[in-house]
Amino acid sequence: MSPAPVAMSCGEPSGIGPELAAAAWRHLGADLPFAYIGDPDHLPEGTPVARIEDVRAATEAAQDALPVLPLAFPGERVPGAPQAAQAARVVEAIRTGAMLACDGRASALCTLPIHKKALADGAGFAFPGHTEYLADLASVDRVVMMLASDMLRVVPATIHIPLTEVPRALTTDALDRVIRITHEGLRRFFQCPEPRIAVAGLNPHAGEGGRIGREELEILGPALARLRDDGLDVTGPHSADTMFHPAARKKYDAAICMYHDQALIPIKTLDFDRGVNVTLGLPFIRTSPDHGTALDIAGRGEANPSSTIEALKMAWRMAGGTA
Question: Which H or E element spans position 236?
Answer without folding.
Answer: strand 233-238
